[in-house]
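Memo to structure team: turn this sequence into structure tokens by end of day. - J.P.
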Amino acid sequence: MTGGTARTAGWLAPVLGLVVAVVALRWAALAFDRTDLFVDEAQYWLWGQHFDWGYFSKPPMIGWLIGAVTGLAGSDAPFWVRMPAAALHGVTAVLLAALSVRYFGTRAALWTAAAYLSLPLVAVGSFLISTDTVMMPFFAAALLAHARLCEGGRNADAVLAGALAGLGFLAKYAALYFPLGVVLAALLFPAARIPLRQAALMAAAFLVAAAPNLVWNAANGLATLTHTAGNIGWVQPGAKAALPGLAGLARFLADQAGVAGPVVFVALLAALVRLRRHGPLAAFALVPLAAVAVQSVLDQANANWTATAYLSGTPLALAVLAGWPRLRALGLALNAALCLALVGLTLAPETRFGRDAPVLARYLGRAALSHELLALSQAQGGVPIHARDRDVLADLFYTGRDSGIAIYAARPAGAPLHHYEQRYPLPEGIAGPVLAVLPAAPPCPVLAPPVPVGRGPGAYAGRGLSAWLVEGDCLAQTR
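Reply from structure team:
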């Protein structure tokens, strides 16, 4: 770790210049983005209409952020829903540059910022708003505060590190990797062993910041925590008998090469193999990578579950690549090319590259289906719309936000399966006709011939959805 003086000399201005340029270019591209909001993005938007300390499947900060930005902008357009993402990653890049200076010197700052901004994970996360993106700057800032603390910092640094990680927890529970990283770093590196009083202050600050969501969960049947645990299939009753094993691990490694770019990922692995040489940052990268690697052997593991690894991992990888300048340039050039390709796809999302369906099919056709259903409802005098599919419901609430048409999910048979069953179930005893969006006829008298919907290219192609006009009281009794 380098000394603590003159750390901003020469690096901050070029890093800020790079970050501002990249964020501005990504905003410009986002203004012409032709993809629909994904199901999660539309759901986050809905959460932002009603501020709370927690929601069905995630902590609250993403809802707060989207609600605040769209409120200030006076617009709920997709651009404003997604706009914070590129800026948050820009802030994170600056924080990681500062972190790299503390560990590897001023020359590492610009390379670290450029590498982080070019990660495929960050490129995608700059065009789609996600909980990872909202968590990242808090986690990065907590790493920086921890680095200061390890250099003999004050009690205030311990409180700051814990509070920042706790705020990250309000964005995504993966922020728990921070305290785990602190513990592992202390076990492996004497320089990361902070006084017990400061460790207690850090833990207390984390719990105070996270407490509102923990209290909300306790008051709401542990809804979010239960849903998060449910994503880890092997910890739930009825887990799959056949484990993915080595095939799952191989898929995990391939996914990570895609998330970080192959050169950066291999460089990070090289840093972790020689873990003792690279200091406490290695512990913070190792914890999520090891945890998700184990998960990949036991059950499904999503590629983005390791996102926090690339906060400490990017400076580590660039420290390794500093001895291989041509390979470093190749890695960043490859990632930059992938970033540009992503921009091209968002501008022309119908691109197929010889496939039967568009490459970005999952981001197309969602608003079109909602418009079809809203028009059918209005043709029947504005009857309520009912759907069981969370994807359909998410965009209906978003696209139909100003329609005045009531939208309902299924009545849950037991615990709700998603936010819409929890908050917007079909009222018991509802009278009059309802437009039901289903792949097959409901067990109710049909009041009009069904209308096929969602048949265009995109997310619903091949789903066989139709709109059925049925009596609401009968529909409310079905499960």
